[in-house]
């Protein structure tokens, strides 16, 4: 009797059924192969979308410079006017509608100053930015900017596509699922590659695609060789991507707090200190319109920047944040994410002009520094264009491996049965021939990963249910 396949794999092939009852033998490789297969089939679409949108995001900084050249750059030359005059020019455009929340002076000649306002009609971490020519105080643009990166509308749209498919918090689950499984798939694939290389003793040949063969063998050689070169990048993207996630990211934050690996953050509370998170897009007072902000004299921005230069602010990329309320301090912070990283910050009491808090990147702990660098590498800002090119190539490689994986699934369909539209899955029952300690170890690892990464745990349950249903159907 011939069983028709559904859109998911099943093990109705007689060879697979015999494989289920094999005696005790190697179990680790077959187990990883089956896990790698199911993850690729069921999670592949999420990884594919994340990879393609990530590739687009890697190009977004360059696209932003082209699309918004009129707002970001100026052709005038000469000395910069005081921030006072530039802010007054921006205030003349905004009026009393919004609250001044931050100023980013032009970092170098030929660029513009951003005067930013908290607009209650904008979303979280969004601000209204008035772009000012620093030499003439002329307004060159009025745009919405997002986060510490200061992303303009195009890059923000691409970022939200990559992060949540523009579906809000519900959509963020897709990227968390992709990031969580990307590392697991990479590790499983790398171990399978090592097992195969040791068995065939053709290590050098397996590092490059085999163009001599056609069909399944050729597709597999591309999938395996690109995968082994991309494995480290996949693990990096997975680890850093999880830190942004909702469920797994919260567990990572708790773990870092328990190990005292938190990233220091400047305190705006007068007479208080705090610890923060490098994922915070803006300082607490920079984009909040809820607190009643005191009247701000534009001349104070020049004074605060001058004072900060004498403390620890020594880079052109700077953000000046006025007090959010009468109980908050002024903050001047570096926002240079390229290498060498410049994220020093200093806070001043608005009444006494004394330093109330200071944070220097040099004083960050090793874990905090690695977290900062990891995030900046993930976003393509640490090494500029070179960083973005590497991310683009890596993302395209990941997307290609997903496509090759589905192609191999189709190429492995049984030729003797035209009703079988897809290939059979690797044989089940790997743990049936494993020692008890191996079964216990696999169960403990699965439970542990499921606790730290809840979406992985939930999807593993789905895998087991699907596998059980297909097994029953095959019988």
Short description:
The protein has helices at 14-20, 28-67, 69-72, 83-94, 153-164, 168-200, 216-242, 247-258, 299-309, 366-379, 384-411, 436-452, 454-474, and strands at residues 99-104, 113-118, 126-132, 139-146, 263-265, 274-276, 318-321, 330-334, 345-348, 355-359. With 475 residues, the chain is α+β, with helices and mostly antiparallel strands.
Description:
This protein has helices spanning 14-20, 28-67, 69-72, 83-94, 153-164, 168-200, 216-242, 247-258, 299-309, 366-379, 384-411, 436-452, 454-474; strands at residues 99-104, 113-118, 126-132, 139-146, 263-265, 274-276, 318-321, 330-334, 345-348, 355-359. The longest helix has 40 residues, at 28-67. It has 13 helices and 10 strands. It is 50% helix and 11% strand. The chain has 475 residues and is of the alpha+beta class. α2 packs across α6, α7 packs across α10 and α12 crosses α13. The strands form 3 sheets. It has a 4-stranded antiparallel beta sheet with strand order 1-2-3-4. A 4-stranded antiparallel beta sheet has the order 7-8-9-10, with helices on one face. Among the domains are: 69-101 and 115-151, no CATH class; 263-379, no CATH class.
Q: How are the SSEs ordered, and which strands pair?
A:
Elements (H helix, E strand, L loop, with lengths): L13 H7 L7 H40 L1 H4 L10 H12 L4 E6 L8 E6 L7 E7 L6 E8 L6 H12 L3 H33 L15 H27 L4 H12 L4 E3 L8 E3 L22 H11 L8 E4 L8 E5 L10 E4 L6 E5 L6 H14 L4 H28 L24 H17 L1 H21 L1
Antiparallel strand pairs: 1-2, 2-3, 3-4, 5-6, 7-8, 8-9, 9-10
